[in-house]
Design a protein that fits this description.
The complex is a heterodimer of chains A (458) and B (122). With 458 residues, chain A is mainly β. Chain A has three helices and 31 strands. In chain A, strands 11-10-9-13-18-15-16 form a seven-stranded mixed sheet, with no helix packed on it. Chain A has a five-stranded mixed sheet with strand order 12-20-19-14-17, with no helix packed on it. The longest helix of chain A is centred in the first third of the chain and has 8 residues. With 122 residues, chain B is mainly alpha-helical. Among the domains of chain B are: 37 residues, no CATH class; 32 residues, no CATH class. The chains are: A mainly beta (458), B mainly alpha (122). Chains A and B meet through β3, β4, β6, β9 and β10 of A and α2, α3 and α4 of B.
């Protein structure tokens, strides 16, 4: 982690903080089942914590907000790149429906995540298991060089070219520069064939709903970290902060110029207008990337289409649920709370039992605020949104559930493999910094909560 | 770092940690002095496909630079190559960097006299 300089705007040199000094940081490509150790050196002035978002990893390597890499120091992150076991997670075969595909890594240091992410500390972390690699090898899915990670972030620049950040804005900063992979409104030259895009909303507080300007649908491969059981059609891609959309765009018959646009206007950190199910979208939207489509249709195009089998899904069943908990996400005392409490890093707010499944009700009682709720360690399965079955793309596995204004979400979740502490929080990182975060601390034996955290790796 | 140092230090942006150290109320009156000045008149330059030059995109100051959109190529982040596969890389000793209690953090970060760790005064 070190300083760097980038031209977000052509000709304007902007100091950034980046992994390896670039933003987004380098993309990691790993194999599921092959552990990796990543040594992170902190050459910056403030403490850091590197969270692998979507990873199923031990607490000491998760990027907990209080497990820090101090300035001038290094920390080893041990990524097991493993998947949990089916059932209670203690025995039986491995649950390969949990094989990760599209993760991202970003700073998660307590109080200061928002500033660090705004400065550029984010990147993509991809993993491939045998199923996915076979789909690539057999040309079902596009592979390199047609597998394109894209981090979407908004920025504002000061007159000296530096990145603007307002530490007193606790609601959520929206920049006026719409950037993709660190460039404002770039272009991308493509051939007439299918490309896979891993779109990641790496913004602090901006929501996106992505659409292709010609109305062409995307072929959806996955939400957040995980692949769907089969490819689905998606007209638009709603991306709350931290969400990922793993999609294929087929440029074979596309016009020579095509735009990826954001059709979800937003005025402040509160969130977009409308409700989760009736959003105030605007078509045409704001163009983020211009695709310049060149040449004749390419031979050997990837064969994926809507309905193509991808990775079988193993659902969490209602019969497995042993406990229900309710969490309310509220604005209070000028900052952000869960169940009327600020984040306290030494307190285990929730102590699930390892190997069990729970039903969590996430409530947003009002105020018009939108909160994308990210839960570390495990995927969760969204059962309902405001009492309704969620859209198809959200019925499988997610790691960040969007809690719209006045919404209520029901999720199923398992706690497997690792003891805590882990956290869950709003991924409007200004809300997160201002304490809309809780600790869950899976334990071997049933334990009532709250409790002191069971282990610490500061 | 006292408040005057903070405000005069134009090379280093004010961080939320600085605010917590100083106390939000104490900094509120002068906070923006150290963040950088802002000019108006940025061009959004949305180009073909939607948006307008007058559209307000951000909720802070306006970026004071004009640009023509879609002139830069989308960069693709490089793939991070492993130092070694199967064996530790030369000079790499697991555990040689701290991976447990770090006393220096508590000396630096948990000095509660310097700032309020948990915001309760809003």
């Amino acid at each position: 982690m070190r300083r760097g300089t980038q031209e977000i705007i052509p000709g304007v040199r902007t100091p950034i903080w980046g992994y390896d000094g670039i933003s987004p940081g380098p993309t990691f490509k790993t194999r599921v089942g092959e552990p990796a150790v990543i040594r992170q050196w902190n050459d910056l002035d403030e403490e850091m914590s590197v969270h692998l978002h979507g990873g199923h990893n031990p607490a000491h390597s998760d990027g907990h907000p209080a497990h820090l890499v101090l300035p001038g120091k290094a920390r080893d992150y041990y990524y097991t790149n493993s998947v949990p076991r089916v059932g209670d997670g203690k025995s039986g075969p491995l649950d390969f429906s949990e094989s990760p595909s599209t993760m991202w890594y970003h700073d998660h240091a307590m109080d200061i995540t928002s500033h660090h992410v705004m400065m550029g500390l984010a990147g993509l972390f991809l993993a491939f298991d045998e199923t996915e690699q076979a789909l690539i090898n057999s040309n079902v899915l596009p592979g390199d060089p047609c597998d394109i990670p894209v981090v979407l972030q908004d920025r504002t620049l000061n007159a000296d070219g530096s990145i603007f950040f307002d530490p007193l804005n606790h609601d959520g900063h929206l920049g006026d520069l719409m950037c993709a992979n660190g460039k404002v409104q770039p272009k991308f030259h493509v051939q007439r064939r299918k490309y896979r895009f891993r779109f990641n909303n790496g913004s602090n507080a901006r929501f996106y709903e992505l659409r292709l300007s010609n109305g062409q649908p995307f072929i959806g491969l996955g939400t957040d970290t995980w692949l769907y059981p089969q490819a689905i059609e998606r007209q638009t891609l709603l991306l709350a902060m931290a969400n990922r959309a793993d999609v294929v765009i087929d440029f074979t018959n596309a016009p020579n110029e095509l735009f990826l646009e954001n059709i979800l206007p937003q005025q402040d950190g509160r969130g977009p207008g409308g409700t989760l199910t009736d959003r105030n979208t605007q078509i045409p939207g704001f163009p983020l990337i211009k695709f310049v489509v060149e040449g004749p249709p390419q031979p050997n195009n990837a064969t994926v289409e809507v309905g193509t089998p991808l990775r079988p899904h193993v659902p969490i069943l209602a019969s497995e649920i042993v406990r229900t908990r309710t969490f309310e996400f509220v604005r209070r005392k000028g900052a952000w709370q869960i169940n009327n409490r600020f984040y306290e890093p030494n307190l285990a707010d929730v102590c699930p039992t390892i190997g069990s499944a729970e039903r969590w009700i996430l409530k947003n009682p009002g105020g018009g605020w939108w909160h994308p709720i990210h839960i570390h360690l495990e995927s969760h399965q969204i059962q309902s949104v405001d009492g309704q079955i969620p859209p198809l793309e959200n019925r499988f596995k997610s790691d960040t559930a969007l809690l719209g204004a006045g919404s209520e979400i029901e999720i199923f979740m398992k706690f497997r493999t690792f003891k805590g502490p882990f956290v869950f929080h709003c991924h409007n990182v200004d809300h997160e910094d201002m304490r809309m975060m809780f600790t869950f601390d899976p334990r071997v034996n049933p334990t009532e909560s709250p409790q002191p955290i069971q282990q610490s790796f500061p | 770092m006292d408040r005057s140092q903070l405000i005069e230090n134009e090379k280093r942006p004010v961080s939320r940690r600085d605010v917590l150290r100083l106390g939000a109320s104490a900094l509120a009156a002068t906070a923006f002095v150290g963040i950088g000045s802002h000019e108006s008149g940025a061009a959004k330059g949305p180009g073909k496909g939607g948006g307008s030059a007058t559209e307000k995109l951000g909720n802070g100051p306006t970026t004071p630079f004009k640009f023509v959109p879609f002139t830069q190529n989308l960069p693709i982040a490089p793939i991070k190559q492993p130092l070694s596969v199967g064996t530790p890389p030369a000079g790499f000793v697991p555990g040689e960097v701290f991976h447990g209690i770090a006393p220096e953090y508590f000396n630096i970060g948990f000095d509660r006299s310097a700032y309020e760790l948990y915001p309760t005064k809003f």
